[in-house]
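Render Cytochrome P450 in 3D.
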Amino acid sequence: MSITFQLLSFTSILTCFFFLLVLVAYWKRNKARGTILKSPPGLWKLPLIGNLHQLITSGSLPHSSLRDLAKKHGPVMRLQLGEVSAVIISSPKAAREVLKTHELCLHKGLTFLLSINLSKNLFAMTNTVTSRAAFGEKCKGQDEFITLVKEIMVLCSGFNVPDLYPSLKFIASINGMKTALKILHQKRDSILQDIIDDHKMNMITTSTTNDSSCKEDLVDVLLKLQKSSDLKFEITTKHIKAVTSEIYLAGGEAAATTLEWAMSELLRNPKVMEKAQAEVRKPERFHDSSVDFKGNDFEFLPFGAGRRMRPGISFGIAIVELELAQLLYHFDWKLPNEVKPEELDMTENFGSTCRRKNDLYLNVTPRFPFLMETCSQ
């Protein structure tokens, strides 16, 4: 009996203690809200249901009940509808204050909802374009190949001890770097071999059926060159794999990184953005730049120079120019949350392509030129 009584007493004390904790937390929460936000005057309310009874028991429709309450309590009032606290605005003057004068209070939250991760979308877009150019239609192993190339670039980025001290190259075998790269390269070669074999089968099928509607991609062109006897040198399967990988690196990762930084710089310089959009939307085609980025001037070498120049330069330039022009032509861009251009974070992340440390989030507004032309007429 005494054990049962002690157990009940302990349970009661524990319940009371928990209840007190809930009350203290509720009191602190309301106190914090009161100190941060000044709420409009509220009506007398009941526990749990708040002011719902004043809307339901009046015999009128809810909007009519709100009108009657506004006549009695003023154009700005606060109602508690269950657990939701609502502010009722019922005059033009008060509505103007909320929707125009104090619109920034809500604007920050809404712009965040409308902002997009441009960095993520840029890399997805360039990967898709590059894959279609290199492999054509969706083929087996394409997504896995893209993932493997990214992993290889991550492993090859940065400083490795064997690169700085060739005499200590055995460290690469100890820390697993050499093994990891070898496995990734073997997987990449295996996937590329499957893709090349599929293209060979498709070429045989196309030649048998005389289907001229089939569009050629990079692998198809290289396979045709491999069969051609007009070349002074032999194109091997290794060459095809190397060129395909290089085109992907130039048109995928490097192009997306360039686009990411280009948009960042344009957002930091609104006047330059306006001029660029004006030139794209009403082409003026100025070619007055004194610096060449194709490797002839040595002030700026994004693709290398001389014999070390990357073979993907033409494809990479086409990707960057086309996609940047499309972004500037079809959309208007702004920084979210009232961030000023000079406040945009431009921190770099070290790596093979020197990406932004933090993804670029922007507010985007689609532009419909055909609608504008119709309205102007």
